[in-house]
Design the sequence.
């Protein structure tokens, strides 16, 4: 999928309507359109990266920036004390639907134990 066809690239360019909760040079944050928890946000790099393995060493700071922004959003959404989960789905077996890297932030309810 090219950036021209990508939902998240279109949201960033304002071609698809979505409230941008946070934005900087590296990434932006929106609410998931089909939330799996009362707080379900997506931290999305501005760069159209499909997979973590595609991130070049020059772009590695973007990943750190995304984690830092996830912390900022967790504070804003008041889920730090109650706890939350960060998820990156990678590929078919993980159920990745949008082929543009993104970090899910899930919280404000007890989340099922993993494994
Ligand atoms: P994935 O399964 O690829 O990790 O997650 C993609 C997520 O993007 C899904 O949770 C889905 O609900 C969300 N999503 C897909 N299209 C849109 C959209 O147009 N707007 C928003 N806000 N979220 C979307
Ligand atoms: Zn994209």
Sequence:
């Amino acid at each position: 999928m090219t950036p021209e066809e990508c939902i998240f690239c279109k949201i960033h360019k304002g071609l698809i309507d979505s409230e941008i909760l946070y934005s900087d040079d590296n990434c932006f944050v929106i609410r998931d359109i089909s939330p799996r928890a009362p707080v379900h946000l997506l931290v999305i790099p501005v760069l159209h990266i499909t997979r973590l393995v595609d991130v070049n060493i020059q772009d590695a700071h973007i990943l750190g920036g995304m984690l830092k922004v996830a912390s900022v959003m967790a504070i804003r959404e008041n889920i730090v004390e109650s706890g939350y989960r960060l998820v990156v789905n990678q590929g078919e077996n993980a159920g990745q639907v949008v082929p543009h890297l993104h970090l899910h932030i899930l919280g404000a309810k007890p989340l099922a134990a993993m494994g």
Remarks:
- The pocket of guanosine-5'-monophosphate (ligand 1) is lined by residues 7, 16, 18, 30-34, 42, 89, 95-98 (CB under 6 Å).
- The radius of gyration is 14 Å.
- The chain is about 20% helix and 20% strand.
